[in-house]
Every structure is written in structure tokens, then in C-alpha cells.
Amino acid sequence: MNNFVWYLLTMAGVTYLIRMLPLVLIKKKITNKYVVSFLYYLPYAVLTVMTVPAVFYATGNVWSALVGFIVALIVAYFEKGLMTVALCSCGGVLITELILRYLV
After folding, report:
1. What radius of gyration, in Å, describes the C-alpha atoms of the chain?
2. Of residues 54, 56, 57, 90, the one with CA closest to residue 72
3. 6-30 pLDDT per residue, tens
4. Which tens digits make up the pLDDT trace of 41-70?
5. Burial level of 55, CB count in 10 A (0-12/13-18/19+)?
6. For position 60, what pLDDT does the model report?
7. Which of 100, 102, 93, 101 is nearest to 64 (CA)?
């Protein structure tokens, strides 16, 4: 077997173990409020860590990405919907890209 198959089997085994072990090892309900709170917010933290760095490389210029990120934060702060936040952010990026194109 070539190396790719070994790598694939190793990755599949590690992924399976990570998902299977908590189900096998933890039999009773978790009652510790700190652990429950940690597990509740963990997916949001992981999603943020994966998404935010990619935002700054999504456009042709880091400045337009920064403007889009700030616009998204401001609109989201006012509890607008996801579509509104995305459209405002895209609009901010578009306007910034147009301004930077004419300045350079």
C-alpha cells in the first residue's frame, strides 16, 4: 500500500476516535455548570477562529476586507439578520474597492 492510503486510514481512525470516545467514556449526564457552559460555547469559538482569519484574505486588498469586517460587526451589533449583515458587508467592500481603484 502506498503512503496515501496509510495517511487516509490514520486520519479516518483519529477522526473516528475523537467522535467515538466521548460517547463511550461519558455515560452519565454532565452536571457541572462550567463544563456545560464550555461545551455550549465551543462550537462558536471554533467557527470564529476558522472564519475571521479567512475574512482578511477574501478580497484583493486587506483594507477593503477590514472595512467589510468592521461594517459587518457594526450591523450585527444592531441585531440585524444574517442577509442584511452580509449585504452591508459586501457593499462596504465594493465601495472601498472602487475608491481604492480610483486612488491608485
Report:
1. 21
2. 90
3. 999 999 999 998 888 888 888 888 8
4. 999 999 999 998 999 988 888 999 999 999
5. middle
6. 82
7. 93
What digits encode the pLDDT tens for the residues 90-99? 999 999 999 9
Quickly list DSSP for 68-96: HHHHHHHHHHTT--HHHHHHHHHHHHHHH
**Cell of residue 95, nine digits:** 465601495
Give the pTM: 0.65
C-alpha cell at 51: 472564519
